[in-house]
Design a protein that fits this description.
By secondary structure, this protein is of the alpha+beta class. The chain has five helices and six strands, in the order H-E-E-H-H-H-H-E-E-E-E. InterPro entries: Conjug_transposon_TraK.
Length: 205
């Protein structure tokens, strides 16, 4: 009888140990499943799908701080392209410069007003002059806020008898502002000024 009792006690211990192992295993499995599910959801939320020409393109959402240098350079590039790309069409000039002025503060508007008063845009229209710009380099210092930038570019001014190449160096600061349709990068150019703008080559046509 004592032997049977001992066997029952041993069997109970084995069952209890087995049950404990199963419970611990289930808990570990549940924790692992929850962790992997959370990881997968986070990964999916970080993906964006863009529909372009009937094709779904995958993009990834990132923190703004990861992209500040790239976005800042593109903001500066876009502003200069809009402000300095001119054709002998008053409506086109107003459209391009108008878009550029959304990207900068009153210093850009002041420059536009000065050029208007000097008859610069009138000369572009009456002389059938085209002006294009090529960005050579843009340096942005993101270590100190607001971010200082310097832009080196070349202007190409096409007249009836010649093509003039001019060096253009501008600088200013970038401040964070809310993003909008007119300002998708969420920067505003401040204290913008031209430090160099001189002829480097004149080619007869």
């Amino acid at each position: 009888m004592f032997t049977k009792t001992k066997n029952i006690d041993t069997a109970f211990r084995h069952i209890r140990l087995f049950t404990l192992i199963v419970i611990i295993g289930c808990i570990v499995l549940c924790c692992f499943t929850v962790y992997k599910s959370h990881q997968m959801v986070t990964s999916i939320q970080g993906k964006i799908y863009i529909l372009a020409n009937g094709k779904a393109l995958e993009a990834y959402a990132e923190e703004r701080k990861d992209n500040v240098p790239v976005e800042a350079r593109d903001h500066v590039k876009t502003f200069h392209r809009l402000f300095f790309t001119l054709s002998p069409d008053e409506k086109s000039i107003r459209e391009y410069v108008g878009k550029a002025l959304y990207l900068a503060d009153a210093t850009a508007k002041k420059e536009y007003d000065n050029l208007t008063e000097k008859g610069f845009y009138t000369g572009i229209i009456s002389g059938n002059i085209n002006q294009e710009i090529s960005i050579d380099s843009i340096h942005v210092d993101t270590a100190v806020y607001p971010y200082f930038f310097r832009c080196h570019a070349t202007q190409f001014i096409t007249r009836a008898t010649s093509i003039v190449s001019r060096s253009l160096v501008t600088e200013g600061y970038l401040r964070n502002v809310p993003r909008s349709d007119n300002n998708p990068h969420g920067f505003l150019i401040e204290k913008w000024l031209t430090t160099d703008n001189k002829d480097i080559k004149i080619q007869n046509r």
